[in-house]
What does this fold into?
Amino acid sequence: MIRKPPSPLSAHVGYWLRLVSNHVSQSFARRLEDHGVTVAEWVLLRHLHDGDALAPSRLATLTGLTRGAVSKLEERLAARDLVRRAPDPDDGRSHRLALTPAGRALVPRLAALADANDDECFDALPTRDRDALVRILRAVADARGLRGDPTE
It folds into this structure.
């Protein structure tokens, strides 16, 4: 019986995705560290920047994080005066999270870091190839029903 040798690691699409993803993620995490923010905190801040105050359960759904993880992030961000708790007008037993003025001012600066990180990590690709890469990855995510935001 002739056995086919095991395929090399680099023969797999997942290998290349993980290699690039690790580089992009670690680079961005270092940039955020300089501002005292983790990637998971950034994701929550960014969602809160888009609109009105959100219930922690809604943030958990949007991000794919557990309610407990959102609660821990809420505590850390509130301790740094980046988010505040507000009573839920629809349910007196609940609360919503909103950005403080300091949090609202921080998000555009962090978004610029995200943009710069993307530009630096993918500057080897022409715009049309970057657009194609995003289109392909979105198609894979949609086909697999992948939801939530990468927070690690």
